[in-house]
Amino acid sequence: MSALSQRAGMSLLLFVSMMILGCGKSTPPVTEKRDSQTGPVTIAGSTSILPLIEACIGDFRKEFPTWHDVSPKLTNQPTLIETVGGGSGFGISSVKSGLVQIGMVARPLTEADRRELKECDIQLVGIDAVVLAAREDNPLFASNADVTLEQLRGLLLGKWKTYREMNPALPDKPIKIVCRDEGAGTTGLVESLVLQDKQIEACASVMESEGALVQELATDRYAMGCTTLREAGLSPKVSAFAIDGIAPTNNDVANGKYPLLQPLYLVTKKPVAPAVEAFTSFVMNREQETIEAAGFVPVRNPPASTPSPASESGTE
């Protein structure tokens, strides 16, 4: 690993460590000044988008080994791009405070978010969906793989403690709701669209990533949880419920019929550094096939019910 890469990684690790320890309530001191023309570019936020962005980074570095390959105005330094997860809320706060240059956000932006990001550019990268998922031998899924929004709300608020309470024909086994942490985009979307801004009350286990949540669902037939359609599709043991009779198929996500859509954003603080702009432009203009191959709906044909990039400009 080069000295520059080591310094970049240590600097980002320090930033993230300070946020985790609670020091991120105010902007921490910057220990290393970043050159806006050489990188390294730093990215943090949603674990839903993270695998996609890492794939885009791989494509970007193959095509442009140095920043000078991107533009003769940039210097001949390697195209170093550092990433870390942490959730959508972490991505927003990290960009605003200057801890990182790009935030990954996987949830609808609230009015409070827009106010917080008024000095930022916000780009809609793609669309995912949030699904209620479980194993196919889960008692509820096996009996009826279609729930209403009202039933989903009841599950997340703890209306039923056992499957039998929900349906007398089901076994007298506890319902185990598995959740993401509070800063996750899936949590924010569910609390906004399903729970009408109430918090999830029935959470038995909290997971720090979508992958960990799906793994928990795959190992426990009595567990259910909300995750992304893409992540659920990566496990052969986990399936998604239909909501109000609409299954989360690619077509019904693309046409906006499925009710729980999850927009995927990249957020950058203005003025945008040349290296940062080069990478985000590459993602938006060159990586739409990669976005589609990753299981997301690309922005060239976003659902009508999804905010367009223009409507999410970051200004009031």
What's a concise summary of this model?
Helix content is 37%, strand content 21%. With 316 residues, the protein is an alpha/beta fold. The protein folds into two domains: 3-126 and 262-312, D-Maltodextrin-Binding Protein, domain 2 (3-Layer(aba) Sandwich); 129-254, Periplasmic binding protein-like II (D-Maltodextrin-Binding Protein, domain 2, 3-Layer(aba) Sandwich).
Structural class: alpha/beta
Radius of gyration over alpha carbons?
A: 20 Å
Strands, count: 12
The top level CATH class name of the largest domain: Alpha Beta
Q: Give the amount of beta strand, in percent.
A: 15-25%
Task: Describe this protein's structure.
By secondary structure, the chain is α/β, with parallel strands linked by helices. The protein folds into two domains: 3-126 and 262-312, Periplasmic binding protein-like II (D-Maltodextrin-Binding Protein, domain 2); 129-254, 3-Layer(aba) Sandwich (D-Maltodextrin-Binding Protein, domain 2), CATH 3.40.190.10. Helices cover 37% and strands 21% of the residues. It contains 14 helices and twelve strands. The strands form two sheets. Strands 1, 2, 3, 4, 6, 7, 8, 9, 11 and 12 form a ten-stranded mixed sheet that branches. A two-stranded parallel ribbon has the order 5-10. Helix 9 (185-194) links the parallel strand 6 and strand 7. The radius of gyration is 20 Å and the shape is elongated. It starts with a helix and ends in an 18-residue tail after the last strand. Residues 1-11, 18-35 and 307-316 have low confidence and may be disordered.
